[in-house]
Amino acid sequence: MISHIASICSFLIEINNTVDMTTTRRQFIKLGALSAGSVTLAGSSFNWTTASSLFENQKSVASDRTPTYCEVCFWQCAGWVYKDENGEIQKIIGNDDDPHCNGRFCPRGTGGVGQYSDTDRLKTPMIRTRTDGVDSFREVGWDEALDYIADRMKEISSKYGPECVALFTHGSGGSHFGQMLKAFGSQSVTAPSFAQCRGPREVGFLTTFGDIIYSPERTDIRDTRCLVLIGSHIGENMHNGQIQEMSDAIDKGATIITVDPRFSTAASKSKYWLPIKPSTDMALLLSWMNVLIENGWYDKDYIARYAHGFEELKEHVKKYTPEWAYGITTIDPNIIRRTAKEMFDASPAVIIHPGRHVTWYGDDTQRLRAVAILNALLGSWGRRGGFYNPEKAKVPEFPVPAFPIPKHLPTEAYKGKYKLANEVVSNGICDATIPTPDKNCSYKIWIVNGTNLLAALPDQEQTKRAIEALELLVVVDTMPAEITGFADVILPECSYLERYDMLRKSPHREPNIAIRVPAVSPKYNSMPADWMAKKLAEKLGLGAWFPWKDMEEHLDWQLKEIGSSLEEMKRIGVKKFPRMHDNLYFAPGEDVTFNTNTGKIELYSTDMEAEGFDPMPVYTAHEEPPEGFYRLIYGRAPMHTFSRTANNPNLTDLMDENTLWVNPKVAKIWGLKAGQYVKLKNQDEKTSSFSIKVRITERIRWDSVYMVHGFGHNNKKLSRAYGRGINDTELITRVKVDPVMGGTGMRGNFVTFVFENEKAGKEAES
Amino acid sequence: MRYAMAVDTKKCVGCSDCVVACQTENKVPIGYCRDWVVEVTDGTYPQLEIEIRSERCNHCDNSPCVRCCPTGASHYAEGGIVLVTPEKCIGCGACIASCPYDARYPHPDGYVDKCTFCLENRVKKGLDPACVSVCPTKCMYFGDLDDPNSPVSIVLKKRKWKTLIPEAGTMPQLYFLI
Amino acid sequence: MKEELIVSGRMNHLIDPYLQIWHWHIPLYLFLGGLAAGILFFAALNTILGREEKYPVSVKITPFITPILLIAGLLALFLDLNHKLYFWRLYTVIRLQSPMSWGAWTLMIVTPLAFIWCALNIKEIYPKWNWKYKFLIDLESFFRKNKTVIAWLLVIYSLILGVYTGILFSAFNARPLWNTSILGPLFLTSGLSTAAAVIVLMSKKHLERHYFARIDLMLIGIELFLIIHMFMGFLASTQVHIEAANLFLGGPYTTPFWLFVVALGLVIPAILEILELRGFKMPVWIAPVLVLFGGLMFRFIIANAGQASRWLY
Ligand SMILES: Nc1nc2c(c(=O)[nH]1)N[C@H]1C(S)=C(S)[C@@H](COP(=O)(O)OP(=O)(O)OC[C@H]3O[C@@H](n4cnc5c(=O)[nH]c(N)nc54)[C@H](O)[C@@H]3O)O[C@H]1N2
Ligand SMILES: Nc1nc2c(c(=O)[nH]1)N[C@H]1C(S)=C(S)[C@@H](COP(=O)(O)OP(=O)(O)OC[C@H]3O[C@@H](n4cnc5c(=O)[nH]c(N)nc54)[C@H](O)[C@@H]3O)O[C@H]1N2
Ligand code: SF4
Ligand code: SF4
Ligand code: SF4
Ligand code: SF4
Ligand code: SF4
Ligand SMILES: [Mo]
Q: What 3-state class would DSSP assign to C174?
């Protein structure tokens, strides 16, 4: 209690003068260090007993280990939380029965303790107030914060309709707030994991096989004989099941072929590394098709049985010879032929991996169509060592009244566009928030849960313009991330180690569920999203959609419906169920109807054709860096997740800033020294806020520079992350939108070095 | 009995999970570590090679750190594991200077600390060391070299391996599969 | 291009980016130990050789500073320890393989001997000194009777102490720069040389000053010879030893070493001493002060550079 009060007193509010505030209605507020006079104590309405009594019983329940599933990324590995003698969380270990992790967490999951112990966490709800033209945050109690939101929501929606509310969410809280939103009357729920991430591949595979890849990916890597990675940098991209299975495949002698302009870790484990010129992958994929078909290196029976449009494809790819591709990709034609042969020899146990973050150049759905077609030619879809048929555990939803039917759907926001998108397009919602003469602006309220939109969405200025147009921005986060600086109301969520959430029921080889149970009660004055959503719903008069007393009752009801119980799940953490539908793989010669217009695997896509897109992928050249500029490419470091771990004490211990990978030849031209700090400027004259440390390495091409996404935070409250490295998103001002599904191609930006203020990063720290 | 560990440089991806796992398991204070990961890149684009090694104390058979310790705090324990007894350690730093692998560090509490192969908290309970048990690529092997059926004996028989600075004469017991 | 990175960001305090476990304490401790050893060695040797009256300052006066030097050295060592409360553990075992251990024990023997030596000579400084208690008087006469034995013990243990100051480093195979057997004799010679310099500084007797200046000159010669041999040894050895030598041959320690240790600490005082012996008049304190400065620098530089030298792998 004492520390609680102290933390409230020491929270303080200060205005950031560096962001242009003259024109903005919503000033970006930085949460700084204590300065007398600016402190506003929490409203008296907060009921101390609510928070403590809510979690009273958990202390007694918590045994030596508590089950959870990890929230440090979206692989959602299930594990056990162990506490030390003092009742503090000591370690998190994978659950042996969990197919996502097989008892082994990745470094971020193991370091998840830092998500809980970070003392920079958001500690109490806050409301933006304006005095004398200056914005600041006022600390308030939960009741006041939620009342404020409910009142504003009612007021604004009475003018514009409930459809004017959008929810941006990434993570477990989404289902709770989504329930609240749907009850309120809006279906605009969106995540950056579609149009900034997996979207093109899901649409590319949907239009080809009539089904998506899902998460975890349905790739049967552990049994594959040939794994082809196109930019997918498994090993740095630390999605647990993928890396574990890739390691199994290496043990079993599988051939790995990696296509990447950078010598990725995966490339270093590969038999073939194809150091492709960035943005030219489509040419390589088309030439592989050419080689496979010309040589008859494809699964003839499979194609005859399942595919639609083979003859058209054959004709289409005739001109895409390896020699043609060589001129574009710089990959030796012999290597193109040899790798095609390797794939065919391994088929059908071959995976041309669809990747995950695939919003690169704007023609991404087409590129992923090409990947899907290659897999079809090799007959790997539905085959062991290729792509298996995943199955999800069936868990009934807690009964609630039917949701009201909104007057218009989120797709209205980008009416007439992205019809093939199978999820809501985040940037479409963002754009539609900005009023334009031709478009009636549809969004006035955003609820942003667990996504740092300033890092996740490209073109920050556009995001800021949209935020500017809002009447209410509610941000639910655990950390003082950039997005919280723009909020009208900040709701501090407790970490995943301090809360229940919905059951995890992702599709896998075996249907399974996993549970998250709080290991400790929420620190500070933070609360779980489920509690916030239910309380807010009640204040909005939507209590009927939250009929359960609490998550324990909710989960126990669901679990009993499927023959388990909360008690059992607390003991075992993960439960598997028998498969109910089809088999893991197609049986030889099995009749399969695919969920496409033709019922077949569409090498020639009727959907694409109907929407006016090329029914078969074609090569389009992309812009190249101008003289003195380098293509900005980015990726993952195994020990961090986007911008969400940049302040995690355990993980910053491993890596506390990103570095700029520069080829020695480029370093020589510019006189760059290893370890020196530089700023970057892009083609649109946008200069980075901070500096980045130069890493001179042969692992990157001379026409590109590389950095890990997620650094360069500009909120001072993030004591370990502030000013460390560069935020790549800042420099991604040119976005190539995929006309098929709205994905934001982010790799068409070019940067050059700026030296004037080398120590800027360092100075900014002080 | 002779405990040893082998790390497969061909499978290790340098994720550093072994480092965080050691930290949380053994309460290694933030800012310090008992193990670390080295990545060596050689060649010129695009002719390149990378070797990645998860390193820690080698639990040397002929360990200079035990030899130079003035108090006997550094000693050989069960299965040749080299340990430090904090209550005997004066923090003179001689063992730190004596280790060619820089495997030891001064713990903020004053004594010298290093990898223990998780002897007391895990190995004696029949568990693998924390780093071995967490590694997502399963590229680490641990066990008794005197037992031909231990994972480490089997893999050392099957694969080519090296140790670090054998010429320093320390007889390291951390093997790197190459 | 070859690139070697610790991708897990290891930054252990005092270990990374290069070893800094020993700061000023250990080199000072070694300097003071070597100096004390040299002074006691000359005192005891001249006693055994019956030159007490010929070289009275070296036998009777300079030893008075040795207890101070030794205790200051031990204090420096103590301050260097990270786990100070457990200091006493040093004296619960004798571990002959550990230079740190036998060095500590050698000090445990030399320090009382130094005190005894001072006690025997206390009347030289305080002619009116009186031992207040009978047992002290008995003790003094006991030691006086066995003065030669004590002198022999001092000769042996001061040599051990002098060599130890070098062996403490050279026992560390892990630091290629230290890993040379020349370091023992070299540090012993340097300790003796600094002791001779102190005697030159403190003695008013022309004969004694000249005698020790000549000894110092000889010791400086030996030191230069050993240093050259040390580098030749390194350069003829493995890559890591060549790298170690290169710290002084173009590397970061080049200027401090060749300027402070070799030029200012050895060559210039040698020239000055030669000139003085040849009868040129100049302030007598310059050469010995330079020798002392050079000796101190030498230990600091070797301690630091040694920690910066490592095996490559
Ligand atoms: N420039 C650039 N942009 C990208 C990418 C890129 O590589 N480069 N990657 C794209 C991809 S693939 C994706 S999937 C997206 C990811 O986009 P996001 O998921 O939005 O990524 P983060 O930047 O990690 O933002 C997560 C936010 O959630 C908060 N958070 C963490 N845990 C919790 C919690 O338990 N509860 C709540 N309420 N909040 C929490 C964090 O503090 C942080 O502010 O970004 C996309 N955008
Ligand atoms: N440790 C860690 N792991 C993660 C995440 C994380 O934040 N941290 N995030 C997870 C999420 S949500 C996602 S979406 C995935 C993303 O993981 P991936 O799908 O593997 O990511 P990409 O961004 O597609 O791949 C980055 C790689 O593409 C290469 N590249 C750049 N341009 C080109 C090009 O033109 N052609 C080709 N062939 N390659 C190119 C880069 O050099 C880099 O190696 O990672 C997941 N795993
Ligand atoms: S892959 Fe790692 S960070 Fe992601 S859920 Fe699993 S353990 Fe957590
Ligand atoms: S956990 Fe395994 S793969 Fe990761 S760095 Fe350590 S040894 Fe390598
Ligand atoms: S690696 Fe170093 S600390 Fe470990 S036993 Fe060998 S010498 Fe001692
Ligand atoms: S620091 Fe401790 S363990 Fe190391 S040598 Fe000194 S006493 Fe022994
Ligand atoms: S064996 Fe144990 S102590 Fe040693 S590095 Fe691994 S986890 Fe740490
Ligand atoms: Mo993603």
A: coil
